[in-house]
């Protein structure tokens, strides 16, 4: 199938190119690329690395879906970072304060996270729709502000609890936790299932619903979408808010599956990863899943590089160059395909007998 | 030295899907106005872009003043003394008049006072009154065109290509332009002049070359040929006629617009003022007007893409003034936009997805918030067949189709779902004769079935031929009405410019 | 014009007129209170041990507690016969997730390293997990308490050391105004602030202490932004402070540079370093302004821990590395506090005696 | 009515420099009054101005970088990545050959990033933001990797370079001393003005001078030369530019190379910051993005972006030096400003805007009155909050280059 080929060829080329680049960097620094690759692959079988890869991939998948929803409409939600962190923090606070029957408790926490993400994304959405403020700038500013908001919320005299030298929110009772799957070599977060469902939902939303159609239409041509009855302002708001709502979930796998609280040392930086993985996966649910797994593999297996004295940062170069080369590859293939299609259409039509010369009516 | 300022020999240019120029030979004598005629898409602009170095020919050669040249970029052409005023203005709104003119020609006199003085001098010869430091965005079309001409003159061009310079001008402005051209011709300038307005061509040209489907079909002597003969040369057959036969107008009101007002975003200037109109079922209401007089705004306001400042719009008795675009479409308005690539299509999406656009809330392509892809494909196939859209299938991207076929797809889509009103904005612009006739036929049939049509067109023959009633729009107002049975294009033209407010 | 009636003098801080009443140092309570200079336990043979060191963000070369932990390891190599090839260091990355820390510790444990030292409170959760998985491996954690039989918690009474440098600052100031620059407003750093303020007030009850943090909790950029650190310190110096103590990690460099820029022969300004003896780690000539450093002897703790493991008994280790075991203290390199040592040692003795208790919260 | 409209048109028709002068004068006056009434003398001290200058310098360079790229029609969100490359390059060259080499090193490394952005966006037509994100990732990875390879052996720390020698600072004498003397007298308003001005004239380095010179220089180059005209035309209407023989690709490449160079200089400014003379991982801390915001804030114009960077640097300087109380005092200033604007608008009979301003002013004053200080958690991010608020109020007056972010391909215009 040429369609599948055109979807898979660019990322394959890009990965090869990025790998070659890294190999060169490794050789220059006097290390063997093959050994490096070998230990990284070997690391997957070590301890809980495989499970960690799956768990991280689920998180990356969620943030990337959030980014992809924006990308579909050419909106750049750089604010995923702030949205998921604030959402995780508030959800953990709420989850720690209330006590509810098991499933309900978890659901409430999830709903809170979604709402906080949505509300926090609603600010740039409104600013964009009604004041014309670029969402890129406003979300960057809001990322900083969300740091302050978290710090304020987690202060021991607001909702924080001192845990030795760490500050955390009040721990969530078992009733609010999201049970995982114990594999013997680590526990797969229960939220992985939610990530998969989100992917399915995203695919369905995009390809089967009116909203998805309008979203893609707006991204392809804002003017044509408007003429087709799509309300541009409304779409901007919904897309960003939805993106924020999904982003709000990204902190939960760890909060509900492992940490049971939000702490000062809770992870950060997923927002940027989400943008990169969404680009890598070309906003396609299957592509993003692949991108998330690749990213997680690189992140988690890199630990093995320490053992053979290769700087772990080579992985960052790999990640950066794979994203850049994948978008270039997609662009080149896209142009080539469009030209090929135009040629094909022309050729087929020329084949049709004298169609061109005929005057109808 | 030969007599010829420019000679094009055996020029062939292919685009994916079209041969825009095939083996064209064209020789332009020095000091003449050489007109190029041909229907939309015949390949005139492409030929001129090749002469101006914007595009490179696949085959063929160019000679300037007898010497063979190869233009890799417009810079090369400019150096050879060729200038071009484009069909679509090439001006940067946010730059000043002087900046637009000096861009690329700074080497001549710098960008200081000397250059400004020269601009002022040239501006006087073409009747441009704008100050050099005025932003272009504040100029009207005629002035913009003058800026374009000054641009060319400033570069010392001796051979000047004018691609449809009169399309956007009112008759007086055309007269002014022609006066300028004649004066310059006397000074030895050579012009390549493209226009669809055959009377104008006969008035100004010394030689006429007719292009059809990318090929040169012959020359004509402007003194001897009639407009009708010329037109038939262009089309290659009897001219199809946009004539509608018997009236099908009913007394059932479909669209009523009352006291419509629209203010510009920045406030102040009014784009539409006191527009009142009624379209009945089975009626085609034509709106005539020089481009930029509010037709686009009127259509977009009726479609809900702009919010009326005041006034009401009712569709079959229901007030839709506050409704959104989609609600209006659902209520039965179909819309063929004037710029199909920007407003009508999703270029990289397949045809069936384009079928959904504007219908995303309605059967057969959607149901209960969900999209039914199979139904969309099926219904697209129906359109392809019914409207003779030439395509290998419904899964190809819209961008792969030629303009005429894209337009037929749009018309087919907009007539799906039983609309009661069709707003057709320049429905045959840039469409080949075959498709044009097809679209006219479709409109006629729909009208006979009781559809109300609001038709905007710059093609006065089309307007007169199709309409049951014609209104003339000038500076945002409907200033006159005309009976298509009796009115002539000339009278209409006079009314459009405000020269004669009392047309019929 | 009319002179303003509000505000303190701006730049310059020539506040010779400011009277700063000072209390006398507590009477030295006899030799008994002198810190146990003797080692906590006699040196054991560590040649059979394989030691893993998991650094916190920053890793080796941070000129702070990671480096200090490494110094402890090196001392064990030198004095306990630990074989260099039997040691392994791994470092954390910024903003990483819990599982990364778990993997790192597990990796060390799996490869048979024991003891494994986790440097930094960020490891508390991960160590709890991993230590339970490897009951036969000995672990230690710096700056945090993990209650498991095979984990030794190496915590420090940073507030006690900070008390002493606070006292030194109050003795040194001529403007009766001193400053504290915290990197990130987390409890760990607040303990430094608390001790510093108490020490200063103990010496000079009227001393004004400017307390500023570079970033709030959760935004760890404050440990890594010398450009902003320098502005915070300059703000304090410009408003009249003449001794500035930092607990700001990498941003501390900015504090030193600010003090170095502000100091003049007529109106000298002083900086106080943190964690390690920063007079030695900061490049000259900037280090000349460092009058002392609050020492947090992670090296002592790590060395003693390795020694205790080698000897087979970790119970001899103190609950907290405080003044009494030289777990915290102040440095004298550079001679910046030579004239104050007697008084400072009196305070030190009083703390060890229990005459003065230092709170770890502001 | 007519006189009033004339008054309104009067300000609008004043030459740009006069308008800027009025705005600056009003700003200085407002700060002086606020400082006097609230007693927060740090608001107008020369130390604060100097801090603002040091803090704004990297942002200013980044903003200039954004200006060059975006005026040629290319969005450059990769500024952060280019700046990271710049910090590394500056440190690497700087520790070996001194501060001037550091400037060159930062510039060269920034250029590499700019070139990459040009290849991706101009030659390959990749979406500008996508390419920018990728370049930032790459910049981070490359510098970390290179640091491990090259800095670790000499500094003992993979995250940090050895110390780089900084520039000597200098002051414009005797003016600086005279102003310092006036400032020290603590006279109402006079000392405030002297403080604000004095800070600008002392503690200078060649890099600071370069930064401030580059603002008018960019203006002259971009608006007063044919080169600049061609470059800007690529951002306004590349098709038209091409039709006039402008080599659009070439100019976009040049613009991005300059943009990268400027971002790299921003990196060098961080490396040569007196607080830490050297490279430190994560040192840029998002300043590239803030530069971009300052440029948008400044309406894609050199003077405007200087104002944007200055606002950011000033607010950051104030909050770092004097904390929540000073930010709190700024609230007081903001309420005075709002009331002032309301009065102005009432005179112009713009009732609605005036009412909004008045209500906003009252609200801000209420916050000021009912609180003692701004919590540190929010004071720390005051610069971002202020930027966001100003954009929310003013962004509709902004005018980006018309063809910004659009893919342009040779020979495809009509
Ligand atoms: N980046 C990618 N990585 C892996 N597979 C992909 C990627 N992009 C597309 N695919 C595969 O190629 C197929 C076609 O993708 P595309 O997005 O064009 O499909 P579509 O038109 O949305 O149809 P549908 O989503 O209904 O399958 C998908 O079904 C998917 O399996
Ligand atoms: N860049 C291009 N890519 C593909 N096809 C093109 C391109 N430019 C022109 N064409 C096609 O070439 C043909 C000739 O177009 P051209 O613009 O030369 O016609 P024209 O005679 O100037 O028509 P009009 O009167 O509408 O201006 C048309 O079918 C058009 O769609
Ligand atoms: Mg799909
Ligand atoms: Mg044409």
Automatic annotation (TrEMBL), chain A:
This protein's name: ABC transporter permease
GO MF entry, a single one: transmembrane transporter activity
Annotated compartments: Cell membrane
Membrane spanning residue stretches: 53-71, 83-100, 106-127, 136-154, 184-206, 235-252, 314-333
Keyword Metal-binding: no
Membrane topology field: Multi-pass membrane protein
InterPro entries the record matches: ABC_transp_permease (IPR001851)
Origin: domain of life: Bacteria
Principal subcellular localization: membrane
A cellular-component GO term for this protein: plasma membrane
Keywords: Cell membrane, Membrane, Transmembrane, Transmembrane helix
Keyword Transport in record: no
UniProtKB/TrEMBL annotation, chain B:
GO CC aspect terms: plasma membrane
GO molecular function: ATP binding; ATP hydrolysis activity
Highest rank taxon of the organism: Bacteria
Compartments reported by the entry: Cell membrane
Domain ABC transporter: 6-238, 255-500
Keywords noted in UniProt: ATP-binding, Cell membrane, Membrane, Nucleotide-binding, Repeat, Translocase, Transport
UniProt xrefs under PROSITE patterns: ABC_TRANSPORTER_1, ABC_TRANSPORTER_2
Membrane-protein topology: Peripheral membrane protein
Keyword Membrane applies: yes
CDD domains for this protein: ABC_Carb_Monos_I, ABC_Carb_Monos_II
PANTHER family attached to this UniProt entry: CARBOHYDRATE TRANSPORT ATP-BINDING PROTEIN MG119-RELATED (PTHR43790), GALACTOFURANOSE TRANSPORTER ATP-BINDING PROTEIN YTFR (PTHR43790:SF9)
Protein name: Sugar ABC transporter ATPase
Protein species of origin: Pseudonocardia hydrocarbonoxydans
Source taxonomy: Bacteria, Bacillati, Actinomycetota, Actinomycetes, Pseudonocardiales
TrEMBL record, chain D:
Stretches assigned to coiled coil: none
Keyword flag Phosphoprotein: no
Record InterPro entries: ABC_transp_permease
Alphabetized GO MF terms: transmembrane transporter activity
Spans traversing the lipid bilayer: 20-39, 51-69, 75-93, 100-123, 129-152, 196-222, 253-272, 292-314, 326-347, 354-371
Membrane topology classification: Multi-pass membrane protein
Record-given protein name: ABC transporter permease
Pfam families attached to this UniProt entry: BPD_transp_2
Principal subcellular localisation of the protein: membrane
Subcellular localization: Cell membrane
UniProt keywords, alphabetically: Cell membrane, Membrane, Transmembrane, Transmembrane helix
Provenance organism: Pseudonocardia hydrocarbonoxydans
One of the record's GO cellular component terms: plasma membrane
Highest taxon above the source species: Bacteria
């Amino acid at each position: 199938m040429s369609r599948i080929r055109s979807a898979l060829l660019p990322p394959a080329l890009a990965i090869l190119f990025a790998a070659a680049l890294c190999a060169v960097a490794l050789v220059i620094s006097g290390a063997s690329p093959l050994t490096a690759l070998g230990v990284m692959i070997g690391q997957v079988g070590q301890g809980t690395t495989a499970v960690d890869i799956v768990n991280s991939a689920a998180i990356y998948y969620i943030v990337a879906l959030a980014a992809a929803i924006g990308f579909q409409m050419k909106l750049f939600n750089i604010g995923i970072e702030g949205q998921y962190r604030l959402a995780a923090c508030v959800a953990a606070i709420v989850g720690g304060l209330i006590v509810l029957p098991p499933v309900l408790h978890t659901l409430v926490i999830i709903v809170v996270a979604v709402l906080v993400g949505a509300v926090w994304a609603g600010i740039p959405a409104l600013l964009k729709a009604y004041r014309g403020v670029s969402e890129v700038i406003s979300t960057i500013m809001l990322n900083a502000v969300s740091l302050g908001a978290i710090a304020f919320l987690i202060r021991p005299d607001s909702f924080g609890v001192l845990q030795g030298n760490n500050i955390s929110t009040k721990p969530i009772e078992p009733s609010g936790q999201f049970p995982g799957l114990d594999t013997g070599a680590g526990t797969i977060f229960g939220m992985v299932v939610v990530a998969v469902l989100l992917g399915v939902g995203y695919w369905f939303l995009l390809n089967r619903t009116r909203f998805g159609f309008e979203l893609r239409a707006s991204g392809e041509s804002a003017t044509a979408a408007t003429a087709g009855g799509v309300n541009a302002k409304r779409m901007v708001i919904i897309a960003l808010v939805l993106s924020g709502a999904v982003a709000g979930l990204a902190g939960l796998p760890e909060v509900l599956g492992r940490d049971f609280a939000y702490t000062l040392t809770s992870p950060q930086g997923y927002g940027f990863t989400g943008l990169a993985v969404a680009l890598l996966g070309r906003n396609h649910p299957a592509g993003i899943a692949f991108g998330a797994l690749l990213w997680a593999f690189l992140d988690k297996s890199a630990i093995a590089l320490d053992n053979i004295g290769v700087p772990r940062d080579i992985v960052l170069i790999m990640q950066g160059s794979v994203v850049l080369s994948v978008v270039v590859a997609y662009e080149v293939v896209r142009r080539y395909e469009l030209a090929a299609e135009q040629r094909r259409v022309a050729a087929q039509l020329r084949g049709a007998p004298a169609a061109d010369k005929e005057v109808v009516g | 030295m030969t007599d010829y300022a420019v000679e094009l020999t055996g020029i062939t240019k292919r685009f994916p899907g079209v041969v825009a120029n095939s083996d064209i030979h064209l020789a332009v004598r020095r000091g003449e106005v050489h007109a190029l005629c041909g229907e939309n898409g015949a390949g005139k602009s492409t030929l001129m872009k090749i002469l101006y170095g914007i595009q490179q020919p696949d085959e063929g050669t160019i000679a300037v003043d007898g010497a063979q040249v190869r233009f890799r970029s417009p810079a090369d052409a400019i150096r050879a003394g060729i200038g071009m005023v484009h069909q679509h203005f090439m001006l940067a709104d946010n730059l000043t008049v002087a900046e637009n003119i000096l861009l690329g020609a700074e080497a001549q006199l710098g960008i200081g006072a000397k250059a400004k003085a020269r601009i002022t001098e040239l501006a006087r010869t073409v009747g441009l009154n704008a100050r050099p430091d005025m932003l272009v965005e504040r100029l009207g079309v005629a002035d913009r065109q003058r800026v374009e001409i000054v641009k060319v003159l400033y570069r010392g061009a001796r051979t000047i290509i004018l691609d449809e310079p009169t399309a956007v001008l009112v008759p007086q402005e055309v007269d002014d332009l022609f006066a300028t051209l004649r004066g310059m011709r006397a000074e030895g300038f050579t012009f390549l002049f493209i226009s669809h307005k055959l009377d104008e061509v006969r008035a100004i040209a010394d030689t006429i070359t007719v292009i059809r489907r990318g090929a040169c079909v012959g020359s004509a002597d402007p003194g001897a040929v009639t407009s009708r003969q010329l037109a038939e040369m262009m089309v290659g057959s009897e001219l199809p006629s946009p004539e509608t036969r018997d009236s099908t107008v009913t007394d059932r009101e479909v669209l009523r617009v009352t006291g419509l007002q629209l203010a510009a975003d920045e406030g102040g200037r009014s784009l539409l003022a006191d527009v009142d109109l009624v379209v009945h079922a089975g009626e085609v209401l034509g709106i005539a007007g020089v481009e930029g007089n509010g037709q686009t705004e009127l259509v977009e306001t009726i479609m809900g893409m702009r919010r009326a400042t005041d006034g009401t719009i009712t569709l079959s008795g229901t007030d839709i003034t506050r409704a959104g675009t989609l609600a209006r479409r659902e209520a039965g308005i179909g819309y063929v936009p004037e710029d199909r690539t920007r407003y009508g299509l999703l270029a990289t999406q397949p045809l069936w997805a384009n079928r959904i656009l504007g219908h995303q809330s309605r059967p057969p392509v959607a149901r209960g918030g969900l999209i039914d892809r199979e139904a969309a494909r099926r219904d697209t196939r129906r359109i392809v067949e019914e409207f003779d859209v030439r395509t290998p299938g419904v899964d190809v991207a819209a961008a792969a189709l030629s303009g005429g076929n894209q337009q037929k797809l749009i018309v087919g889509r907009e007539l799906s779902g039983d609309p009661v009103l069709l707003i057709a904005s320049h429905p045959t612009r840039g469409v080949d004769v075959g498709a044009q006739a097809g679209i006219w036929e479709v409109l006629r049939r729909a009208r006979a079935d009781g559809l109300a049509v609001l038709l905007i067109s710059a093609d006065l023959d089309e307007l007169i031929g199709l309409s049951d009633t014609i209104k003339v729009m000038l500076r945002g107002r409907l200033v006159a009405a005309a009976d298509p049975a009796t009115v002539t294009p000339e009278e209409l033209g006079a009314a459009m410019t405000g020269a004669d407010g009392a047309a019929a | 014009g009319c002179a303003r009636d509000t505000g303190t003098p701006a730049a310059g801080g020539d506040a010779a007129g400011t009277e700063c009443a000072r209390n006398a140092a507590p009477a030295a309570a006899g030799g008994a209170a002198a810190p146990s200079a003797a080692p906590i336990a006699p040196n054991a043979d560590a040649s059979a041990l394989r030691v893993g060191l998991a650094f916190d963000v920053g890793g080796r070369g941070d000129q702070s507690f990671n480096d200090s932990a490494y110094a402890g390891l090196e001392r064990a190599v030198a004095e306990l016969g630990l074989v260099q090839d039997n040691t392994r260091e791994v470092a954390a990355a910024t903003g990483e997730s819990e599982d990364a820390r778990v993997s790192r510790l597990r990796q060390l444990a799996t490869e048979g390293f024991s003891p494994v030292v986790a440097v930094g409170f960020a490891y508390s959760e991960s160590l709890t997990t991993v230590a339970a998985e490897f009951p036969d491996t000995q672990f230690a954690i710096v700056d945090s308490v993990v209650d498991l039989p095979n984990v030794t918690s190496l915590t420090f009474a940073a507030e006690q050391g900070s008390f002493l440098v606070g006292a030194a600052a109050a003795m040194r100031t001529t403007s009766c105004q001193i400053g504290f620059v915290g990197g990130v407003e987390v409890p760990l750093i607040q303990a430094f602030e608390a001790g510093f303020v108490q020490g200063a007030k103990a010496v000079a009850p009227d001393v004004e202490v400017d307390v500023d943090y570079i970033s709030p909790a959760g935004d760890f950029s404050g440990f890594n932004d010398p450009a902003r650190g320098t502005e915070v310190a300059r703000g304090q110096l410009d408003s009249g402070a003449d001794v500035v103590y930092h607990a700001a990690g990498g941003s501390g460099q900015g504090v030193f540079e600010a003090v170095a820029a502000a100091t003049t022969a007529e109106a000298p300004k002083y900086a106080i370093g943190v964690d390690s003896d920063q007079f030695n780690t900061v490049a000259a000539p900037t280090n000349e302004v460092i009058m002392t450093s609050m020492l947090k002897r992670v090296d002592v703790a790590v060395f003693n821990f390795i020694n205790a493991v080698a000897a087979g008994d970790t119970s001899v280790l103190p609950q907290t590395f405080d003044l009494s075991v030289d777990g915290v203290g102040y440095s004298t390199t550079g001679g910046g506090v030579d004239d104050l040592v007697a008084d400072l040692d009196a305070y030190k003795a009083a703390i060890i005696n229990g005459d003065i208790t230092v709170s770890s919260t502001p | 009515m007519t006189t009033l409209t004339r008054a309104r048109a009067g300000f609008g028709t004043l030459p740009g420099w006069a308008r800027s002068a009025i705005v600056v004068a009003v700003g200085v006056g407002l700060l002086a009054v606020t400082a006097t009434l609230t007693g927060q003398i740090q608001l107008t001290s020369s130390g604060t101005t100097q801090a603002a200058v040091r803090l704004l310098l990297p942002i200013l360079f980044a903003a200039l970088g954004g200006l060059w790229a975006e005026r040629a029609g290319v969005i450059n969100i990769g500024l952060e990545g280019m700046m990271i490359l710049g910090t590394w390059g500056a440190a690497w060259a700087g520790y070996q050959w001194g501060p001037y080499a550091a400037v060159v090193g930062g510039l060269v490394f920034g250029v590499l990033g700019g070139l990459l952005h040009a290849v991706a966006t101009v030659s390959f037509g990749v979406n500008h933001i996508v390419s920018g994100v990728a370049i930032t990732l790459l910049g981070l990875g490359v510098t970390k990797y290179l640091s491990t390879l090259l800095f670790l052996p000499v500094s003992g720390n993979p995250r940090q370079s050895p110390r780089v020698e900084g520039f000597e600072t200098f002051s414009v004498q005797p003016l600086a001393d005279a102003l310092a003397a006036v400032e020290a007298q603590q006279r109402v308003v006079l000392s405030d003005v002297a403080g604000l001005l004095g800070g600008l004239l002392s503690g200078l380095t060649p890099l600071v001078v370069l930064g401030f010179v580059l603002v008018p220089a960019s203006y002259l180059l971009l608006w007063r030369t044919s080169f600049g005209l061609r470059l800007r035309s690529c951002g306004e209407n590349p098709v038209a530019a091409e039709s006039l023989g402008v080599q659009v690709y070439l100019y976009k490449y040049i613009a991005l190379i300059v943009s990268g160079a400027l971002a790299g200089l921003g990196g060098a400014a961080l490396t040569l910051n007196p607080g830490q003379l050297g490279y430190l991982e994560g040192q840029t801390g998002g300043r590239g993005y803030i530069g971009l915001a300052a440029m948008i804030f400044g309406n894609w114009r050199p003077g405007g972006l200087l104002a944007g960077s200055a606002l950011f640097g000033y607010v950051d300087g104030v909050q770092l030096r004097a904390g929540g109380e000073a930010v709190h005092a700024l609230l007081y200033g903001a309420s005075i400003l709002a009331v002032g604007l309301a009065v102005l608008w009432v005179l112009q009979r713009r009732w609605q805007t005036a009412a909004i301003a008045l209500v906003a002013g009252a609200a801000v004053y209420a916050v000021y009155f009912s609180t003692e200080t701004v919590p540190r958690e929010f004071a720390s991010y005051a610069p971002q909050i202020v930027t966001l608020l100003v954009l929310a109020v003013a962004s509709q007056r902004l005018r980006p280059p018309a063809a910004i972010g659009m893919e342009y391909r040779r020979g495809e215009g009509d």
